[in-house]
Amino acid sequence: MTLTGIDADEDEAATLAAATVYVCITCRRPDDPEDGPRPGLALARATAQAAQGTGVAVCQVQCLANCSRPCSAAMRCDGAWAYVFGGLEPDRDAPALIEGARLLARAQDGILPWRGRPEILKRGLIARMPPIGFEEERE
Amino acid sequence: MTLTGIDADEDEAATLAAATVYVCITCRRPDDPEDGPRPGLALARATAQAAQGTGVAVCQVQCLANCSRPCSAAMRCDGAWAYVFGGLEPDRDAPALIEGARLLARAQDGILPWRGRPEILKRGLIARMPPIGFEEERE
């Protein structure tokens, strides 16, 4: 059976809806004032804006514990590995986070592909974690 | 209703069974030979041994992408935050990983408590990630 265009669009939207980007809203860089507006919050707002119409969910969190390399964000998708990124800039990297989440949602093997991944999601990679139900590697 | 001792034990075992420690088996420290036995694998084996009889699952993984601060491990439990740790020593830190997983499994709020947490799981904290179904923080 061939999907109609509408069916395919709905299928795509359903897949991407399972992708969530978590943005730390307490992150600040070493030079940022402690009592000023948090760049993490600015990144969260920019990411939510970049997500509009994509089906990717954006969720604000208090601290991803990556305080030495702000700003921080993570992404997860059902059945896929989860990723944490650091060194993000609020006025630059929101579109890369959404692009990464879309790539992850489409990845058949549940792994964020290296090829085509936005550069900041390569050099800013902090850690990854296997999906629930991941099976042990063989020695 | 008061649980009998046996029921309580079974309940405890069921809770802890949901906790999994993931150990990176490809981790090596800067001074380790590239083709020698990987300290990450030694840590994974020690952690599996330390887990015996506790109900905590230990799972070997290829790379947690925390390559700048080896050795690395992560832990997760149903409904709880997930954590990634680095700077672990194979011959020292396996019991701390199991103790941390037990603390996480018992945490009512899904957050690994700071008080009582093994020291290496404080200074070796790399990142954390909210559980699936986590609700957005309010601004």
Any overview of this molecule?
2 copies of one chain form a homodimer. Chain A is of the alpha+beta class. Helix content of chain A is 31%, strand content 18%. Chain A has helices spanning 5-17, 39-51, 94-106, 120-123; strands at residues 19-24, 57-61, 73-77, 82-85, 125-129. In chain A, helix 2 crosses helix 3. Chain A binds chain B through residues 22, 25, 41, 59-66, 72, 74, 76, 82-84, 125-130, 132, 134-137, 139, and chain B through 22, 25, 41, 59-66, 72, 74, 76, 82-84, 125-130, 132, 134-137, 139.
Features:
globular, 31% helix, homodimer, 139 residues, alpha+beta
CATH architecture of chain A: 3-Layer(aba) Sandwich
Count of individual helical segments of chain A: 4
Low-pLDDT windows of residues of chain A:
none
Report the β-strand fraction of chain A as a percent range: 15-25%
Shape estimate of chain A = globular
